[in-house]
Design brief:
alpha+beta, 4-stranded mixed β-sheet
């Protein structure tokens, strides 16, 4: 229908250590549309806050980028969060989900 805004399939969050602040406002949309979420983790509070929002919604995290020389644990890495049971290739492939 013209004028409708469709739900996102992918959300990218990279707001320099404040991703955990964006999550609570997006929780209802994330729960309803279940998009794949890419998050840049800049600090421990960020990483813990994002997991606190997405884990209860049934999201699984996979680290996708390591910034060599300064990354430790979840800090300084990008993650893909996907709803459990959803393949990262859900629209172009038939890879079975692993969580």
């Amino acid at each position: 229908m013209a004028g409708e805004i469709r739900a996102p399939d992918l959300v990218k969050v990279d707001i320099e250590g404040h991703a955990h602040k964006a999550g609570p406002g997006a929780r209802a949309s994330l729960a309803a549309s279940r998009p794949i979420v890419i998050v840049a983790s800049h600090c421990a509070v960020d990483a813990e806050g994002v997991h606190a929002i997405l884990d209860p919604l049934g999201y699984c995290a996979t680290r996708i980028v390591a910034r060599l020389g300064r990354a430790t644990g979840a800090i300084g890495h990008d993650f893909i969060f996907r709803p459990a049971g959803v393949s990262l290739l859900r629209t172009i492939g038939s890879v079975p989900p692993r969580c």
